[in-house]
Structures are given as C-alpha cells and as structure tokens.
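Fold this sequence, please.
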Amino acid sequence: MTHTGQKIQDRAAIAGIGRTPYGKALGRSEVDMAFEAIFDACEDAGISPREIDGIVRYDMESVDEEQLLAGLGNPDLSYFLGTGWGGGGAAAVLVHAAVGIASGMANTILVYRSRARGKQSVFGKASNLGGRFWERLDRDLPGIDKWHVPQGIVTPFHEMAMITKRHQIDYGTTEDQFAEVAVAIREHAVRNPEAVMRMPMTIADHHASRMISEPLRLFDCNIETDGACALIVTSTERARDLRHPPAVIRAGALAAGSHHRRLPAMFPRNRDEDSAARTGRRLFESAGLAPSDIDCAFFYDFFTSLVIIALEDYGFCKRGEGGPFVENGGLSWNGGRLPTNTNGGQLSEAFIHGLNNSLEAVRQIRGTSRSQVEGCELALVAGANTDPTGAVILRRD
C-alpha cells in the first residue's frame, strides 16, 4: 500500500512565512491580522498575492477565502480546503497544501490562521468570534457539551487535566517533569523578541504558579493571545527560484480518533492506536526516516503534559519514558536530547493554534532561528495529539 505521505514526498515546499505581532489584546480584527500575515508571507517568498491559486485554512477560521479575494487582487482560486479540529489542524493544513501541490490542483497555496484569542478579545456573540469560547456556550448545550459540561468539565483545562492525571497514574509522571517542559520552552522564548512571555522561569517559579485544574498549574497552560500566521506552499522546483532556501515537505500523515472532548471514547482506546501515534508511524514510514533522525521538533504545546505524551506518541521514547526524557534540559535548543519549540511555542511565544510553531520550523530549516539548532536538517511539526491530527517532516533542500 502506498501512503499519501509517499505520494507527496519532496514535491512541495514552504517558500514564505509571515506573521503579525503577537499580544494578549491587540484590539485588531481577525480580517486585518490575516491580511498582514498573508502579505508578509508573500513578501518573504518574493511573490505577488495575485499568484495565490489555492487556500487551506481551519474550518473554524472566521476569515474565509471569499473575504480574502478582493484584498489579494482577486486571484483565480483552483483549490480551497478547510481542516478542523482546533490544534489537530496545526500541521494537517500543511499536509493538505502538499497534496494540492503534488496533485497539480494548484501552484501557489496559502495556509493561514488568524485568531483573536486574548481573554478580552471578543468581537462577536458566536463562540468562535474571539476570546474564550467556553465562556459563551449555548445555554441549551447542544451536541457533546450536554454530556460533560453538567459534570464540571467545561474548558480544555478540565479535559487536559483528566488526560494528564491518567498519565500520572499509569506512569508516575511528576510535576517536576511538567516544569522541565515549561522551563525549556520559556528559555527559548527569552531569546525570541517576538514572544509574549519572556521572563525567565525556574522550576520553583512553575511550582509557585496557581493551580488551574489539578494537576495543571498556570505555567502548564498555553497563553491566550491575538495574532495571525501565514505560509506559502509551492512546488519544490519553483521554491528553489524564490527568495529563501525552501523548507521541503519530506512527508505528511493524518489520522483521526480520538478527541479530547469525547473523553468516554478516548480512554478505552489503546494510546498506541490513537490518532497521534498512528500519524507518527505513517509519517516516519512514508519519509523513510526514524525519530532518531529528527534534529528538532515542534509539538502542539497547549499543555506541558501533552508535550511529554507527544514524545511517546511519535516514538522518541517508550510509553512512560516521556517524563524522564525531558529532565535536565532534554528539550533545550542548546544540547538537549531533542530541541523542541525553539520559538517559545504556545506556552510562551503565542497561541495561534500551533501555526506559529510551523513558522519556527521553517526558520530552523533556513538556519535563521534565534535558537538555531546547529546543523538542523530535519524538523518534525505535529498537531495536537488529543485531536484528529496531522504531522509533517520538513527537510533542508
């Protein structure tokens, strides 16, 4: 059987990256931020926005392709697609873009996410219009919300706390190990002038932060920010003629089942058969690589504990060994076992549903990161590992 990842292997590349400033309350619309990030990515690639003929976005993105057309010069779109599942889309959008390029459906594909996610950034009544969606749930609790909200599981913090506690019970994962993740990723943010959280952190600082949903403390949780990110994906051949060395998409993979908002269906599943683990196996098989080949990784760090679980999901260590893996600077850019989220991630740089991590992966491949991993040739980018998800491996050309 030929996996989709083998069909797209090395045929598409990221040629441009762009973003807005990040902040906790920028006071800007998502449309405004989307255009800034998109124009920045086009400028970075050295192309005109009119050359875009494909768009891949999150289904929950409030700025759709129709809203962009006039501002982009009314390009002739031949490929457009949405992928949902929140953080699971963080790398899935790149998989879909690579499929569009490899299939010949488009020549220049825009991938983007614009999000007003700061606590005070609400700009409409619907739950996807900025701010905290769980603070504006429908009173009638339609769908799956009616099963868990009355039991007190209202926010992602509650859901992830249960998943985290299960990992502690099964494997003895400790609060010190969660702190190791937060400290390492904050170390990277301190070196990044664009990061929102740049105050140095110690393990003691982590332990002193307030409890949000036991066992998760404040510094175990991603920050809430506004901002937008965009990437330009084109063929590898064309990318070589553009402004920067291409970040080639070596392989990509997708898998669905389970989802953190369906906890009763999540825990009975063997973790090795869950979406992230299956994605990882397919990804490395189609790439002809092993986890040991990866020079740096970008995990969906919405919570420190899920970075530890992702290390296990993607085969960097065995089940239950993720905690010890992160100890003693295991994720540090400078000499760590696996440099991880060298931009500061969603824990400290910004929360743009993971797309900011993809931009940093491209910088690592280009050799332009503020926390550059020496000799970086291969970077893993993964979506949330508690959602239907996706992952890609980027390589230096």
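The longest strand covers residues 226-235. The longest helix spans residues 30-45.
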